[in-house]
Amino acid sequence: MARQKFSKFIRPEVTGGGPITDRDLDIVEAILRYRFAPASQLVRLVGGNEDVTQRRLRRLWEKGLINRWAFPGIRTHSEFHYYLDSREPLNLLAERRGLEIHPQMQEEIKSNREKDYAQAAFRGQHMQLGFLAHCLMISRMHFMLEMACRTSGAGARLEAWCQGGQLAGRKVEVPKVKSSRGGTGYFWEEASETERLPVEPDGMFTLRLTDRPAGGQLVHFFYEADRGTMVMTDMLKKLRGYYHLIKKQQKHKEAFGIHPIRAVLVETTDEARGKRLMELVNHPLVCGPAKRAGLFWFTITPQFTDPTAGSTLPGHLDHPEIILDSIWALPDLTMHALSDAENSPQPAVAKA
User: Percent helix, strand, coil in the chain (nearest 5)?
Assistant: First the structure.
């Protein structure tokens, strides 16, 4: 009988036996927690020998307990990214580790199975690839926070992280906007009628800063992953929704159960896009040019994806603690770290 040919993208018809190990369960737990995660992050989250973890990832995929995709390239594909699309791994975690299976977990697994991301990536389906790239930005942010807090000497701990369906469905009622042209510019006026704008962060997390007094240790953040594909008019609505919910109406506790919101963190593609978003924050329909816009903090993706000095690894793998550093810029170009107290910005960066 001819030996079966194995493909990296097609599961073998016959898989090896053997028990499900504790490392296997650690891997499945990490994928469940992150929803989508590349192998490079999973081997660090799980710990132990990297080669062993890579072998266990492949074996779990062969057994159908996890699924994976790779972004297609001209000469080669990307690393593999993993997700769950079967109820069986949840049952294993429930049986072996007491996992409480929530309806949202089942809904996400059902959605993953129906979307069939592995085949979508293999076929190069543009819309699905864009969605997956966005999800991986969120996953990277979560990863950096978790790893930075594991090794942080600054006393930071990741108290909670939420994403996906947990944050969907919130809206805020705001005045409708009328625009008119006058001379060379446009004028905006808020009307008496109202409209409802969605406020659905890509991520929401809480840090516990253990070096602070007991009553002031928790700080809460929203996170937005901007891939640069949303037009500025839609970004304006997004920022306006945040500002009305948090600052003007102060309904964030009612909507999300946390208070106060330290900042809305916006990660975007590059400095040019970041500057345009900062200008939107000062738009009359958001904060306005006369107010200090301290709610929105900005950084750029190359901070995390470019290799660090003396290393071939991207910054988020080699130095995840950067997420806690003073890399977050306000529209006035003062810099902040996530652990900064109120009114304690770093010196302004030089303007280009």
Answer: 40, 20, 35
pLDDT along the chain (352 residues), means of 10: 52 76 97 97 96 95 94 83 96 96 94 92 84 96 96 83 93 84 62 90 96 90 97 94 95 95 97 95 84 86 92 94 95 92 54 38
- Domain end position, chosen among 66, 92, 124: 124
Q: Where would I find the H helices in 252-330?
A: 252-256, 271-281, 302-305, 315-318
182 in the same domain as 34: no
In a domain, 260, yes or no: yes
pLDDT for residue 7? 62
Residue partners of 233: CB distance under 8 A and separation at least 6: none
Residue 113 vs residues 33, 42, 66, 279: alpha-carbon distances, Å? 17, 21, 11, 41
Burial class (CB in 10 A: 0-12, 13-18, 19+), 208: middle
User: If DSSP codes are grouped into helix, strand and coil, which group holds residue 36?
Assistant: coil
205: left (phi over 0), alpha (psi -120 to 50) or beta: beta
163 & 268 share domain: yes
Domain of 41: which CATH number? 1.10.10.10
Q: Domain range holding 53?
A: 22-124
Instruction: Count the domains in the chain.
Output: 2
List pLDDT tens digits, range 108-145: 999 999 999 988 888 878 788 899 999 999 999 999 99
Q: Does residue 169 belong to any structural domain of this protein?
A: yes
DSSP code, position 314: B
- Over its C-alpha atoms, the chain yields an Rg (Å, rounded) of 22
Q: Say whether both 87 and 225 belong to one domain.
A: no
